[in-house]
Amino acid sequence: MTTLRQYIRRAAVALAIAVAATAVQAQRVRTGIEVLKASGFKQLEGKRVGLITNPTGVDNDMVSDIDILAAAKNVKLVALFGPEHGVRGSAHAGDAVGNAADPTTGVPVYSLYGKNRMPSREMLQGIDVLVYDIQDIGCRSFTYISTLGNVMKAAAEYGIKVLVLDRPNPLGGEKIEGCITEDDCVSFVSQFKIPYVYGLTPGETALLLNGENLLGKRCDLEVVRMKGWKRRMTYDQTGLPWVLPSPHIPQPVSAPFYSVSGIVGELDSLSIGVGYTLPFQLFGAPWIKAPELAQRMNALRLPGVMFRPMYFTPFYAYGKGKELQGVQVYFTDYRKARLTDIQFYVLQELYALYPDHDVMAEASDNRKNMIDKVCGSKQIRRLFMLHHRWADAKPYWDKDVEAFRKTARKYWLYK
To answer: Which of 21, 197, 363, 413 is the most buried (most CB within 10 A)?
Structure first.
């Protein structure tokens, strides 16, 4: 018979093993900042540095790049640059961000999401190298890669080197979905001719933008590679701590769900969970009957996902204070799931159930314009609206994937 003392001893041993295993797991991937630190900052030796970052720019112990570079004796940190949401990450989506000084280091902070989307000559005075370290979420409409491209354009114009400290793509490095951005839909949410889900890390994205001449002029670019990252990895497999890259991406799983619902999130009359506790994981409205929609969605047998009836009351944004009904999306096999298709199948089934609520047709002209910009093509909305069937638009959505996959492989840093 096991005594209480033996039970406690065994439990303590099991806990110690679990803690040790967690510690080992936490070191499974070393991001670019970790590799740079290990080198003694050799790429920045004696350089005056401008750092483009936000709260996600941390090492494996969650120490900010700002503090790390400010303390490095062989580096001179002279300026900080913030993307959408700001250096400290407190601004909401779409809000302009102003200039200031960092309260800890006193280093001037310049916004790249306000009056200036690109660093100006004045901002870059006295800078030898621009260091970029921001966690991305692998989706074209998430604006950090637009900021990366603009930084690279300015660096090329003024003869400044760019050093990208690489980080994982939380969608993994295998998923590619969506058509290439077309000329009449280029905007800050679709700035480059790449698919909506592009399957590259920030460093690989920078190499592709530079190598394929997507910026007009090439810059002097170097990427500090991660160690231990594999293309098949989802973020939870990296062992890295997650720092939210924007207010509505609080957990690693929020990143793939952004691609699941972010396009139709531009509509006026459908909730995708923003304003509730499950951003991007829900589809809901007051006129939906949750069991009906869940049944229709599950009957489609979409690979890798399932749908649960959901009842929720948003705290803000669309539907604030009202009970909405709809579905919550679950991954059952993430590798098989087609992320972006899901939202269009939801629109398809909503129209079949509730033709009096055509959320795409009812959208304001401004919202329709945003849908087109986020999709990167006016054809997706036009083709879908022919019969409210995703099958009509899906071939166009998929048409550039394999060609881009072939191009992207030239810039892979990881297998």
So the answer is: 197
